[in-house]
């Protein structure tokens, strides 16, 4: 057992401890998405296609079992729109049943299922019609949500859309983790369309009566070079704060944090060459999560927050534990100061497909992408021990 030996504070009653994944990044064979089409296009910029990913479409019972055996109690996973609605208006009952079995498997293992409806990918037919630029995309997403409710009768937590601010001005997310996020730039029009889709989805989910719903926002911890606070605020509004404002009436907001971004007169300022970097090229900065929680609290007006993603791409699992310790210390300080934080879901449960490459390893579990063998890392036992003891690392 890997145990945290530093100072701790008790977690709030009912605090969620878990890990997160996304369908396209772990399922494998997700051939009906526009992203699969993009991966295999003759002029693609993708380094390697997703292929079989982690084969979690078939191996999800093992993944859920490993999460539960470690001591965690919550699994955030996404259901795939492209599988459920393979052609516009055509619903696959078999695929709905598949995701219902995932929910049941969580329940049987004592795990809270935390379902995401949309995690970057759209069906091929939606992509060809313009993705988030399609004239009727809001209605399409509402109908997809209505279809998904058939399997959500005992699901308490639902994320409508993952990181909408990362999808703006793209027909769907084509994230280049090696070169950073926010590519190619914000589009206020599409931001407003995605917000309308979120609100439409939330209206459907709220009608069920038992679902708590919200969306998750990528918090980039915008910090200003002294004297450039105005430029920071202008840079960040359509890249982050607009989406936080849209969550003010939601049941919760998902806080997703990995890094900070320093803004000067012309936008982001490069970090010095000598700072420690993760396998995605980002600065090692675990303090980002504490900053993200405070900023989200301020902009949303204090709605409940759940950390739906936080982690580090590294080949050194001891650094993952160090990073997560620092991040959770930020959660502890936020709780001490009265912020309403209700859970921590690590990214990611598995070493998965990071939108173009398998090289950035975020997982608590190593996956051999030839044999699909799962090998839990010490970080999984470490995080599970915190969950079992109900304590959070404290400063």
Automatic annotation (TrEMBL):
Upper lineage? Bacteria, Bacillati, Actinomycetota, Actinomycetes, Micrococcales
Q: Would you tell me the protein name for this molecule?
A: Family 1 glycosylhydrolase
User: Organism source for this protein?
Assistant: Microbacterium gawkjiense
Q: Which InterPro entries does the protein's record reference? A: GH (IPR017853), GH_1_N_CS (IPR033132), Glyco_hydro_1 (IPR001360)
Hydrolase found in the keyword field: yes
Which keywords does this Swiss-Prot/TrEMBL entry list? Answer: Glycosidase, Hydrolase
Q: Which domain of life is it from?
A: Bacteria
Family to which this protein belongs: Belongs to the glycosyl hydrolase 1 family.
């Amino acid at each position: 057992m890997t145990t945290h030996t530093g100072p701790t504070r008790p977690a709030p009653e009912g605090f969620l401890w878990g890990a997160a994944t996304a369908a396209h990044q772990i399922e494998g064979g997700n051939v009906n998405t526009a992203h699969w089409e993009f991966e295999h296009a003759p002029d693609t910029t993708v380094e390697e296609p997703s292929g079989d990913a982690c084969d979690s479409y078939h191996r999800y019972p093992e993944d859920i079992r490993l999460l539960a055996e470690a001591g965690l109690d919550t699994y955030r996973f996404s259901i795939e729109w492209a599988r459920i609605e393979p052609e516009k208006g055509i619903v696959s009952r078999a695929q709905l049943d598949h995701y219902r079995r995932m929910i049941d498997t969580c329940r049987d293992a004592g795990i809270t299922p935390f379902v995401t409806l949309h995690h970057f990918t759209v069906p091929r037919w939606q992509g060809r019609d313009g993705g988030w630029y399609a004239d009727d995309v809001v209605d399409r997403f509402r109908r997809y949500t209505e279809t998904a409710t058939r399997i959500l009768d005992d699901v308490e937590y639902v994320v409508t859309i993952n990181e909408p601010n990362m999808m703006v001005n793209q027909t769907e997310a084509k994230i280049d983790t090696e070169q950073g996020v926010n590519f190619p730039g914000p589009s206020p029009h599409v931001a407003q369309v995605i917000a309308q889709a979120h609100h439409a989805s939330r209206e459907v989910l709220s009608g069920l009566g038992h679902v708590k719903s919200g969306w998750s926002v990528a918090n980039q911890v915008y910090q200003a070079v002294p004297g450039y606070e105005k430029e920071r605020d202008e840079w960040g509004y359509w890249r982050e704060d607009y989406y936080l404002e849209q969550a003010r009436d939601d049941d919760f907001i998902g806080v997703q944090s990995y890094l900070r971004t320093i803004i000067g007169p012309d936008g982001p300022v490069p970090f010095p060459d000598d700072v420690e970097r993760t396998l995605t090229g980002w600065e090692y900065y675990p303090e980002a999560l504490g900053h993200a929680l405070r900023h989200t609290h301020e902009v949303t007006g204090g709605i409940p927050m759940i950390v739906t993603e936080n982690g580090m791409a590294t080949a050194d699992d001891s650094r993952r534990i160090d990073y997560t310790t620092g991040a959770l210390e930020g959660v502890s300080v936020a709780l001490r100061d009265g912020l309403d934080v209700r859970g921590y879901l690590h990214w990611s449960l598995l070493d998965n497909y990071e939108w173009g490459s398998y090289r950035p390893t975020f997982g608590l579990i190593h996956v051999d992408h030839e044999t699909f063998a799962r090998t839990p890392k010490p970080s999984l036992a470490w995080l599970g021990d915190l969950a079992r003891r109900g304590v959070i690392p404290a400063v």
